[in-house]
Design brief:
The chain is of the alpha+beta class. The chain has a domain at 61-191: Endonuclease, Chain A (3-Layer(aba) Sandwich). It is 51% helix and 10% strand. It is built from ten helices and four strands; from the N terminus they run ααααααβββαβααα. A four-stranded mixed sheet has the order 1-2-3-4, sandwiched between helices. Strand 1 (114-117) and strand 2 (126-130) form a beta hairpin. Helix 6 (97-108) packs across helix 9.
């Protein structure tokens, strides 16, 4: 029997942690000393089923728990203390409730992501980046209806398209009407999954 040198290369370990213990790929990655993308790639390599929407909700983080509240504070602090500037030059912006909702949904669905992301050679900040090429903008209905913001949004959309990124735009009213988890599942997951299934490049 071939010896497995790394935890994430062990099919049984992956199945136990992901399904029996209901751990997220982020937590599994921390245990195995690798990235969550690597965990996702090995799950795909072994054809281990991925949690569906209802299963992700059950295994996902609960914002009412101490862990959930702590995570919100950490996210807010990370954004505020980073070099990224907010909407208005010179003013740091805490993440809004709808930005946090989308970030939470990405976590629930085990999608690796980076908030307040500025691509190389770009002067603008995008709300979220999901490797390898998905940029996410979470837009409040009022502010992003203003002419100045619409011009800036158009510039960001053009830059993303011209530089090979897929831009996902999620509006405030959509989150209230549909829910961030459903929107991320519909608009982001297919692009992440298409990369994982076409490149099981386990590493």
């Amino acid at each position: 029997m071939q010896k497995v040198e790394k935890k994430y290369q062990d099919k049984e370990w992956l199945k136990v942690q992901y399904w029996k213990r209901s751990l997220s790929t982020l937590k599994m990655a921390a245990m195995a000393g690798c990235s969550s993308t690597t965990i996702q790639n090995w799950l795909a390599y072994y054809k281990i089923p991925i949690r569906n929407l209802s299963e992700a909700q059950k295994a996902g983080y609960d914002p009412t728990t101490l862990e959930g509240k702590t995570r919100r504070k950490k996210l807010s602090k990370a954004v505020k203390t980073s070099w990224a500037w907010g909407v208005f030059d010179g003013v740091f912006q805490s993440p809004t409730s709808i930005e946090i909702a989308v970030s939470d949904a990405l976590d629930m669905l085990d999608i690796e992501h980076e908030p307040q992301y500025r691509p190389n050679e770009c002067s603008r900040i995008y709300d979220e980046f999901a490797p390898p090429n998905v940029l996410i903008e979470v837009q409040g209905d009022y502010w992003h209806s203003l002419d100045k913001m619409q011009e800036r949004d158009a510039e960001k959309a053009t830059w993303a398209r011209d530089n090979g990124y897929h831009l996902v735009v999620i509006w405030e009213h959509e989150i209230h009407e549909v829910g961030a988890l459903d929107l991320v599942t519909e608009r982001v997951t297919p692009f992440v999954e298409s990369v994982l299934t076409s490149c099981p490049g386990v590493g």
